[in-house]
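[Discussion] Sanity-checking designs against the backbone

I'm trying to build intuition for which residues belong where. Below is a structure token string of 371 positions. I'd appreciate it if someone posts a full sequence so I can compare it with mine line by line.
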């Protein structure tokens, strides 16, 4: 596999991993780093040093950029193998030619699309402070990749939207978003309870508005429990998750909870998870998604499939005490805007604020939500 990695610019050292057949053609342009003192070349096969030469600033005069010696398709293939936007940004700073390859081919955008397929629905990047579309997209997607992978994890649910059914008005979906010590002390006896059903295959859905219309969800947690003391756990057999956006903002100017109506048909679900089995236990169960999911639109649906336990009325119920969505909120640095008259989805990007926030991510990226 062709791969080239560039790092440690600030320590005046460039480490390059490259195929063996390119080793004898490797030279650096004098514009790379005027103060650079050391160049280390390593093989892709074993990552062991193959050659080591020390160049002074003046030694580099007159040399050629090895990437320019290759066919354009080969140069593009090498840089496409980089799997971190930070490496692509560094590569684009090596020379004008490298920048042209990275920016004109939208390599940061391609990396985002490969890693997070949900971003494929974005049709345009809006960065008010810049007019150059190519460079604007390069900056936006490079920063977006970093934000998706480095912003701190947090709780992402803001408000409940609707439940497919509710047994009693007091057993509302609103009871499910308490968490932490508040849940343990105030909401312990609160929960959402479905209507009873004669059919154990009757599904239920819960819909929530996330804390931003553009965020990344990595894990969803559910606490299924007993409806009344002395009764069994009213659990579903399986659970599935969907994420998406409303068909029309106007549809959400309605209190589905108060009306006890389901809002499932008011949304376009752009992501559907695998089906997860649910343990029949009275505890918070964690469902980690196969890969982080970029939720474009800011809505989460929890689909509870199958029923296990009957109540004294000989009907099947599902009871949920707590729901959590764990992920990274990308707003206000990034947000999305939908056009109801077309399928356009615009990514809005605040470059200045994003640069400041990302510069602090090294110290906050490991923050975990506390239960």
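Best answer:
Here's mine. Compare freely.
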């Amino acid at each position: 596999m062709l791969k080239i990695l560039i790092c440690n610019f600030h320590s005046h050292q460039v480490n390059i991993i490259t195929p063996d057949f390119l080793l004898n053609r490797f030279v650096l342009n004098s514009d790379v780093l005027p103060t650079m003192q050391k160049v280390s070349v390593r093989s892709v096969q074993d990552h062991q040093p193959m050659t080591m030469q020390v160049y002074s600033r003046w030694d580099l005069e007159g040399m050629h950029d090895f990437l320019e010696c290759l066919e354009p398709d080969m140069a593009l293939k090498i840089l496409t193998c980089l799997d971190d936007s930070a490496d692509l940004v560094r590569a684009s700073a090596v020379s004008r030619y490298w920048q042209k390859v990275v920016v004109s081919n939208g390599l940061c955008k391609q990396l985002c699309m490969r890693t997070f397929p949900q971003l494929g629905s974005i049709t345009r990047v809006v960065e008010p402070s810049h007019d150059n579309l190519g460079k604007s997209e390069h900056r936006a997607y490079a920063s977006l990749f970093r934000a998706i992978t480095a912003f701190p994890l947090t709780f992402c649910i803001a408000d409940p939207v609707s439940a497919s059914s509710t047994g009693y008005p007091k057993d509302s979906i609103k009871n499910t978003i308490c968490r932490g010590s508040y849940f343990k002390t105030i909401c312990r006896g609160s929960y959402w309870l479905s209507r009873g059903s004669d059919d154990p295959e009757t599904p239920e859905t819960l819909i929530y508005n996330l804390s931003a219309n553009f965020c990344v969800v990595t894990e969803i947690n559910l606490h299924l429990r007993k409806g009344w003391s002395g009764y069994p756990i009213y659990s579903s057999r399986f659970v599935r998750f969907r994420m998406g956006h409303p068909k029309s903002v106007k549809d959400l100017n309605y209190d589905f909870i108060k009306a006890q109506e389901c809002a499932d048909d008011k949304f376009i679900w752009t992501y559907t998870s695998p089906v997860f089995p649910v343990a029949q236990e009275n505890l918070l169960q964690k469902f980690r998604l196969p890969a982080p999911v970029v939720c474009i639109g800011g809505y989460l649906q929890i689909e509870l499939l199958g029923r296990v336990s009957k109540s004294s009325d000989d009907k099947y119920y599902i009871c949920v005490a707590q729901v959590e969505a764990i992920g990274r909120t990308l707003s206000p640095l990034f947000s999305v805007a939908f056009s109801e008259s077309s399928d356009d989805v615009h990514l809005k990007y605040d470059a200045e604020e994003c640069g400041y926030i990302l510069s602090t991510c090294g110290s906050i990226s490991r923050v975990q939500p506390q239960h």
